[in-house]
């Protein structure tokens, strides 16, 4: 190596050490002049922040409610048994109103998708802050930067894993349920800290410019915001190529598009055809069984031979009872119109006919069951069995469904029999039921 090369390396090392000590700034995005958009500034960031301040807590709270709906305190239901104090809020999930889970989970998914363009716009508006150098000049600034990194990282993690989950695209090397729960708590903690630090500035920034005035400002009259202490306003702004009005319309239009392409999967009915982002498609064939299928029989190893004439339902209680499907059909049947809603955000309301779970409990000698443990023919998977609470079993609308909309269940919808409990998550309405255990839950 020549002397010149050694000198260049020595000088380069000295510059890097100087940057790490806060002497100067690295090139590229770490320098304020790199960011030149004339639209960035406290007011625009605060507009996006205000929308997220309303929407994100709703998404987070409905997500926590979704976890409670799984009744994780019952055997086999908890996908996050190491949650510890993070489960302090859990409660017995009710069966009424029957539309509650449909509402909360639909809101969680649809609102989350709707907020994606706004979240991306917010990240774009504050991206100079992520590259501010040095990272910290004081303990207060260090706390602010740490909360910002946790907030951004938590938001990106929650949205990315959530969207991949509703699209059934499991490319991450970890279980979705615990990761999403822990990520949600980290994100919410960072959000609380960030709001506590930034709320006064948000209010001041929103008051600094009139929203109506900005909506009337065209491209020609668009000017940068005044310099700010956070460094959001460009030091050397470029000429504007879009007005703030245009940017807000673009972001708002993106959110409305996301809403319009996904809300049909929750509302169902005629709007199902508009749900282009629905993970399970929009058409499931003609007839009474034309509604969403989460997992097909073939995908979980359930065959026609297992569900044919030799199928038997086993009831376990004070005594063991075996029933054929014909014997089940000979019992008193009841029909209720109930919604079924899935964690991915889709839901539908159908007319279900079957035998009450409480009647089946009495048939095997259990007058007041403390719950039931249902087992499926499904091969493997975390939801091939489920525990239902005493309240769920006692509800007169809780059925072992045999028919839907007046027709026999199709194989993909759970033939020969499936659980149908009002207001339960879709995965707890177990399909291809082979055993109901009304004894003390294991």
Automatic annotation (TrEMBL):
Q: Which domain of life is it from?
A: Bacteria
Annotated region (Disordered) at 1-25, 217-236
- What this protein is called in its record is Membrane protein
Query: Where exactly are the transmembrane stretches of this chain?
Result: 43-70, 109-127, 148-170, 182-203, 247-267
The record ties this protein, via CDD domains, to: SO_family_Moco (cd00321)
Q: Does the keyword Transmembrane apply?
A: yes
Q: Which InterPro entries match?
A: OxRdtase_Mopterin-bd_dom, OxRdtase_Mopterin-bd_sf
Pfam families according to UniProt: Oxidored_molyb (PF00174)
Keyword annotations for this protein, in alphabetical order, are:
Membrane, Transmembrane, Transmembrane helix
Basic and acidic residues: compositionally biased ranges: 217-226
Q: Which residues form the Oxidoreductase molybdopterin-binding domain?
A: 309-439
